[in-house]
Structures are given as structure tokens and as C-alpha cells.
Design brief:
65% helix; membrane; DoxX family membrane protein; globular; single chain; transmembrane helix; mainly alpha; DoxX
Length: 162
């Protein structure tokens, strides 16, 4: 086990990571909610890699609306949980699942043409990096330190003391 020299610095860094990722997800969700023309159709229809057929299936007339709303709701849920510091582990799990889907729709494999992505990557892209960061947030929760969960944590501590 690694000894952490400055635990407060680690905690503050984790809070910042949680807040920044929460902001990113909330912003993406709100922008999509308030844009009546937004749809995930283009992103899904241009999917590549081994799961292409699954993402193409999601572009069907009966599924695309569910995919769009599911994406928007999940983005806002993750954003709120991470920003507010409540149900943070659930937010981190949903974020990791969403990011895994985004990565698998457009994997950054060297043998796959990079379509509908920012830049050219070999295996690791920003979705994969943010996914790993969400796994770290899941492992090192900070909402009891900074967030609404802290209010509930104090109540639990007081009731256990009595």
C-alpha cells in the first residue's frame, strides 16, 4: 500500500476532478436538452469497430428517440450527482458506462478509420481517459467531504453518537 503524504491535497484534487467531470456531463446534457434539433443519429450512424451493428440498430425509428432521451437524462444525472456530491458512486458508474459506449461507438483502434472524432489516437482517447477518471472517483469518493452527502453524513454521525 502506498503511503499518501498529503491526504488533504489528494482529497481536494479528487473533489476538483469530480466537479470538473460533473460540470462536463451536466453541460453536455443541458445543451442537448435545450436544442430541439439535437439527435445522436449522426454519431451512431457513423459508428465503427466491432460493435458497429449494435449502434446502427440504435438509429432505427423506434429506438433513436429512446437513445436520445436516455443519453440526455444520463448526462444530466451524472452531472448533478457529481457536482452536488450526492449518489456520487452511482454517477461515476453511469458515467463510466456512457463513456464506454461512446468509446465503443468510435474506438480509437489504429486499424479503424477515425470518423466523427476530435484528433487521431492510438487506442487511448479522451473518452477512455475520462472513463478511468470516473473509476477513480468511484474508488475514492469525496461527497462526504464536499457535497450534499456531507449533510447526511453529519446527521448519521450525530445519531450514532446518541
Amino acid at each position: 500500500m502506498v503511503k499518501i503524504r498529503n491526504e488533504k491535497f489528494l482529497t481536494n484534487s479528487m473533489v476538483l476532478l469530480r466537479l470538473f467531470i460533473g460540470w462536463h456531463f451536466l453541460y453536455e446534457g443541458i445543451i442537448k436538452l435545450y436544442n430541439p434539433d439535437w439527435t445522436s443519429f449522426g454519431y451512431l450512424a457513423s459508428a465503427q469497430g466491432p460493435f458497429r451493428s449494435f449502434f446502427i440498430w440504435m438509429t432505427g425509428d423506434s429506438i433513436i428517440g429512446v437513445a436520445d432521451w436516455g443519453n440526455m437524462i444520463a448526462l444530466v444525472f451524472v452531472g448533478l450527482t457529481l457536482l452536488l456530491g450526492i449518489f456520487e458512486k452511482w454517477g461515476a458508474i453511469v458515467a463510466a458506462l456512457l463513456l464506454a459506449l461512446y468509446y465503443l461507438a468510435h474506438p480509437s483502434f489504429p486499424w479503424v478509420a477515425q470518423v466523427n472524432v476530435e484528433g487521431s489516437y492510438w487506442f487511448v482517447n479522451k473518452n477512455l481517459i475520462e472513463l478511468v477518471a470516473c473509476l477513480v472517483i468511484y474508488q475514492i469518493p469525496t461527497s462526504h467531504y464536499f457535497g450534499l452527502q456531507r449533510l447526511f453524513h453529519k446527521k448519521e454521525t450525530l445519531s450514532q453518537a446518541n
